[in-house]
Amino acid sequence: MTITQNRPILIAGLLIFATVLLGLAVGAGWTDAVDWRVSHALSLRVDQNDPMLIAFMQGASWIGGGTPRWIIVILLCALVWHWCGPRCAVALGGASLLSNLASSLLKFGFGRARPDLIDHLDHQTSFSYPSGHATSAAVVYLLLAWLAPPRWRRAAWSLAGVMIVLNGFSRIMLGVHWASDILGGTMLGAAFALLGICWVRRPKEASPASLRES
Questions:
Q1: CA nearest to 170, candidates 36, 19, 26, 42
Q2: Collapsing DSSP states into helix, strand and coil, what is residue 75?
Q3: Does residue 165 contact residue 182 with C-beta atoms inside 8 Å?
Q4: H or E element: which one contains 139?
Q5: What is the value of pTM for the model shown?
Q6: pLDDT tens sequence for the chain (214 residues)
Q7: Can you tell me whether residue 174 is helix, strand or coil?
Q8: How far apart are CA 109 and CA 27, in angstroms?
Q9: Gap between the Cα atoms of 195 and 21, Å rounded
Q10: ∠ Cα 125 143 182 (to 5°)
Q11: Sheet strands (E) in 126-201
């Protein structure tokens, strides 16, 4: 591989390393002040706001997790299969699964408690860092944007930006994540999206028949 081909892998490795470093900083309490200020500005405001906003944020959060997330992944795998073949579909599905596994392992490893500023306005059953919702949004929609054909690429990048930001804000505003959880999850998801792209772009190994002909 050339340096240019290796660059996405290097960036992905740095993002995973940064996710672990941020987790250590979280565990040391270095992010507490910023996390508290962000959550105080967002989650406490929602707790006092109208139920329509809460319902909207709960809907955005619902789309990004659990069964709805995997239904969306399956549908998008079918879409990218149509765009660029089975290799792209496998990359999207595989990156989504592996990033979810990595997020779960890191959650267990860091064991960070959920915010307690307000009553949780969305269902949650695991530790807080990194956010699985943020990880999923980043890996799915960034990879979708990279795999989109040129005529759809601008729309796909716009969708990626909207879904990543909306997902992150919804989790903080519903009182189930700190801002650093969202940042860590987004970096982790972006790393696996880059790895997925590297796998798609990796040259196919030559078959024995082609080697004999050469």
A1: 42
A2: helix
A3: no
A4: helix 132-147
A5: 0.89
A6: 555 667 889 999 999 999 999 999 999 999 999 999 998 888 766 666 678 888 888 888 888 888 889 999 999 999 999 999 999 999 999 999 999 999 999 999 999 999 987 777 777 878 999 999 999 999 999 999 999 999 999 999 999 999 999 999 999 999 899 999 999 999 999 999 999 999 998 876 534 444 344 3
A7: coil
A8: 11
A9: 20
A10: 35
A11: none
Residue 180 token pair: 């650093």
What is the spatial distance between Cα 175 and Cα 122, in angstroms, rounded to a whole number? 8
Structure tokens at 36: 């508290």
Q: For residues 172 and 39, give the distance between their C-alpha atoms in angstroms, rounded to a whole number.
A: 6
Query: Structure tokens of 30?
Result: 């270095």
Sort residue 88 into left (φ over 0), alpha (ψ -120 to 50) or beta: alpha
